[in-house]
Specification:
Layout lengths: L2 H14 L3 H16 L18 H24 L4 H16 L1 H7 L3 H4 L3 H10 L9 H17 L3
Length: 154
């Protein structure tokens, strides 16, 4: 799932759940559930060195930039909810953010962090369908999140 869709989900959760102790794990769980749905992805990203491919870097940078912009817009729209929005967004984005060290350092990181390889393998296994038709799911989910968020605007 695109990081932007995880971010939109985290924003909605942050606006809906007041308790950060409940919000954080719920946001992480939302990420895992969304990754189990068919979506557009970059399948070789889970395999290691391909994560440094220029197309992957550009795609990821654009998606990350959109996520930051959406988060900033939400913080502007709901200033009283900024802490909850940020907890929701960080929780919802966290499983994708763990790929950043692998992108920067490659598989050499596996030697220093024994838990890292199994974690990346798990995150890759749950994403069973990452093909272009999955973009339909991405569009439907983004539309749903934006529609729900627009109903919460002050």
């Amino acid at each position: 799932m695109l990081l932007t869709n995880h971010t939109l989900t985290g924003i909605l959760l942050g606006l809906s759940i007041d308790n950060p102790v409940l919000l954080a794990p719920t946001a992480v769980a939302s990420h895992l559930v969304l990754d189990m749905t068919p979506h557009l992805g970059y399948p070789s990203a889970k395999n290691g060195p391909e994560t440094r491919a220029p197309l992957f870097i550009v795609w990821g940078a654009l998606d990350f930039t959109a996520s930051i912009a959406v988060t900033a817009a939400a913080c502007y729209a709901w200033p009283a909810r900024i802490p909850s929005i940020l907890v929701g967004v960080i929780g919802a984005d966290l499983p994708d953010l763990v790929y950043i060290p692998m992108i920067v350092f490659g598989k050499a990181l596996y030697r220093f962090l024994p838990f890292y390889a199994p974690m990346i393998a798990f995150l890759g296994r749950i994403q069973w369908y990452e093909k272009p038709p999955g973009f339909i799911t991405e569009i439907i989910w983004a539309t749903l999140m934006l529609a729900l968020l627009s109903r919460l605007l002050p």
